[in-house]
Amino acid sequence: xxxxxxxxxxxxxxxxxxxxxxxxHILYExxxxxxxSSWSSVEFLRESQWVLSGFAQWIISDPNVLSVVDFLNTxxxxxxxxxLIFGLFSRVASIAGALLLLVYYLNAPPLTGIEYxxxxxxxxxIVNETLIxxxxxxxxxLFPTSHIFGFDAFFNGVCKKERS
Amino acid sequence: xxxxxxxxxxxxxxxxxxxxxxxxxxRTALKALAGIPVAGVLGFEIWKKTKxxxxxxxSIVKELGLDDIEFPTSDYGSVKHTGDLIRVGMIGFGSRAGxxxxxxxxxxxxxxxxxxxxxxxxxxxxxxxxxxxxxGICDVFDMHAENGLATAKNRVRPGGESAPxxxxxxxxxxxxxxxxxxxxxxxxxTPDHHHSRIATDAARAGKHVxxxxxxxxxxDELNELYNTVKSSNIRFQLGHQITQSLVFQQAKEIIxxxxxxxxxxxxxxxxxxxxxxxxxxxLDANGNPKPGSEETIDWLQWLGNAPYAPFSVDRFYNWxxxxxxxxxxxxxxxxxxYDAVNQLLHIGIPKTVSSSGGIYFWKDNRDxxxxxxxxxxxxxxxxxxxxxxxxxxxxxxxxxxxxxxxSMELGxxxxxxxxxxxxxxxxxxxxxxxxxxxxMISFNPNAGQxxxxxxxxxxxxxxxxxxxxxxxxxxxxxxxxxxxxxxxxIRSGDTPCANMDVAYExxxxxxxxxxxxxxxxxxxxxxxxxxxx
Lengths: 164, 533
Prior knowledge:
The complex is a heterodimer of chains A (164) and B (533). With 164 residues, chain A is mainly α. Chain A contains 7 helices and no strands. The mean pLDDT of chain A is 86. Chain B has 533 residues and is of the alpha/beta class. Chain B has 2 domains: 86-243, Rossmann fold (3-Layer(aba) Sandwich), CATH 3.40.50.720; 246-291 and 318-472 and 500-532, Dihydrodipicolinate Reductase, domain 2 (2-Layer Sandwich), CATH 3.30.360.10.
């Protein structure tokens, strides 16, 4: 992939802000789950409809699978959030985040004809914040900023040194 | 690489001479660390929020005087049920007996096979082994008796691998079972018109009794049962289970602490809206009549002391519809509501009861009303208990305790909402600490702690009924806990929670409500002569 990065300062600033904002959101989602000892994905999965509902039911039906999913979910969110904020393995974090959020989206897509017990925070048809966040993470993966504003820069530095 | 350097130049627009010497110039390194202050701010905000939440929670908890609250702890999961094996006989083995068997630790092999690998079965396999065996089955219907035998013999059960493998016997009548010295205790899950007679005979025979509600359909039968059990040495438990839920223990504490203020009204309700809920249960999934005929069912024994009626599959499966066998919604549904309220408030027998209702929708051959409303007056407690049941609407109306300072909706969860006119909470409401438009506190039985910060979703979860409760981190069937209480009392000599005194109060209350409906008048309890007048 070409990495021209011929962004203007302003373009760079807002790409970076987007990365920080999504990282912030995902990291806090993970930490909030970690701090809430009673949290479990079971309520969310119980509501699951559309293509992944069978998968969700399978997770709920086995307490061992459920606890693994809860663990991976919490620590996955934290790892992705840290990756985005610190700019460490930022592209991997962006892609992983997009995939994880896509799974959330597919479990509860706001499609006409599918109704949920819990009220939504706004009004949605097909597109909701989760889907937008998925797309935004894809944008971040395609327009990286971490090789300058992030720990990834050190790896670049190391590579550069080795190559020179 | 040139591109990259160019881009850095473009973005940073700073001097690049450092880069030549070190490969990682200071400014570039600083930029690489740009995420650190962001993470720092987030960390600070999380700390601030956690502190705020904890403060808010503890100030509400303190305001309510709950800071020293102690909820009863359960020894569930750590008890070894030692001592002699208790040999249980099951009298009646229909669907409810299947649930009782499961609560004892026995399930039919088909039931186990169908649930293999599910969480429900895993939870059940973790149930405490009660050191009991089902050794006797009595049912007038061959098919039910066969189910009972297969259930009792199934070796796949909680903790029972090393349990003694005793033979299971089918008895032609319950008298034969009661005469057998190898039966220690009986569980009675027949149609209701047999309950008091079998329970009385069992008590006379010295067998411990677990009997499903209703305890008795007639006042004289109830009196006879009461006197027999009281003069015997058996442990008696009436089949209720919802008060075993952890949330009831918490609600009990709430009431004891007077958080609701003076309670003058309790509203209990049941709404259902389908044929099964209206006790039309004689057809299978394909609309064909369920099995059973006079060849396979001892119909005269089934009728017992009830007036003769010709056999029909309708009558056999849907007996709840007729007053010869049951009190309808009072016996099947209100009993649970009464039990819930009486266990919390100890209200006992009402002074007067007025019932009204009618058959407004399910106009088949039934006696029982499908819309029924009863008012129970307790002037001695300054309290009215309302019951309203309807079989044509599934709108949930809940079970609500209304106090001067707060109200409590008690279902799968206990949700306490402060009253906007409360004097007790006036200051806290004024200061904004308590918001009367949302629940003040709720008890989540799964979290096992006070949830003083309530969210919009709380009500949704809370309104869902629970058939299991969480004890020491495990999902446990509430009927199992109720059966366990009975078994433990048989071994220890203690009194079970739904004992004969409680059952008597409930029985009289229900008979009063039923008589009031039949006679279209207010029925009065004569406390001096202990008689319904």
